[in-house]
Amino acid sequence: MKLYRVVMMFFLIFGYLQAEMNPTEVTTAFTKEHNASKGDIEEINESEAISLEEENRELKEKIKALEAQIEVLKENETTIETKTEDSAAFMKASKKIFKGAKLKIGGKAPKFLSTYYAANYQSVTDVKSKLESNGFRVLAVTPILKDKIVLTITNDELQKTNTLLATLHVLVNVGDEVRVQNPSYFGAAYLQDKYKYGQFTETLKALQAALGDMYEVKEKYELADLGNYQFLFGMPYLNDTITVAEGDDLLTKVTGKSAQKYVAYTLKLPNGDVIVGHKLRNKTNQFLQKIGVDRDANMLPYESIIKGKKAVILDPKYYLALSVPILSMSEFMKIASAPGEIEKDVKRAYK
Questions:
Q1: What's the average model confidence in pLDDT over 155-180?
Q2: pTM of the model
Q3: Helix spans in 172-315 (H)
Q4: Nearest CA to 66 among 16, 4, 20?
Q5: Domains of the chain: which residue ranges?
């Protein structure tokens, strides 16, 4: 903008000079000055000197007038900049229009459950503060991909399940939306016949208080089939877990200094089991982008659970499919290496 004002001043002054002196006068003045001898210069009469002083004074007055015009331009420019900033602030504050149904807590069980709920965008700082104000404990804030930040949370209601449902992942899609795992969806899958629709009402109310209105997403699955979920025939079920470590010192390994770069958090459950949240390699996390589901990056961090002298994980072939129930077979084949990479990354923390 400073360059703009300098250019405007130049053109205004140039226009003035052009108006005050035509080309003929410029040429004549130059010729006279060029041809004048030293003696001629000494004989310049007083009237000519006075005339030059007057012209000089008039020129200064013109310049002052031009400076005043430039100040007006500066004021107009400030107004334009303010309007631009106001417009940007409006765009940032504008709410996203969601296509899914708005969450209404209570009522009878639906046929399909949404895997996640989406809400209007808030910053990571605001989300964390509001979650904590509504009874959640934030275990970790983990970057998964660029502009994909996950806050892992827990509360008493979730911990009473003594399962991997003791934690939920909340994703801040920077500049777009906030997305949270639906405890009813994962509760139906993990608790199976022990699950009763509506048992996580308090958690949902707290999430709604923290995040505002929440909406269903296109990732859904039939409630009646979640307890016995299987992606395809021959694929793993919930209880087809993978053992990633065994020994007496498993907790010591994942809480030691050397494990810090591999472990995001740990959570001891009421029954003594311990959930461990794992930081996967950036290369591993990229499977989300390969199939275009980075909007669901809050299926991570991947978790293991220590049960006595054994640490296990859900088979990634089960968990990834459960987390993206709209996944097709061809899409699943695009990330065929992801389950093995996830298992390998988790095992690093137990070495």
A1: 98
A2: 0.74
A3: 183-191, 201-211, 223-226, 250-255, 282-285, 287-290
A4: 16
A5: 2-93, 112-348
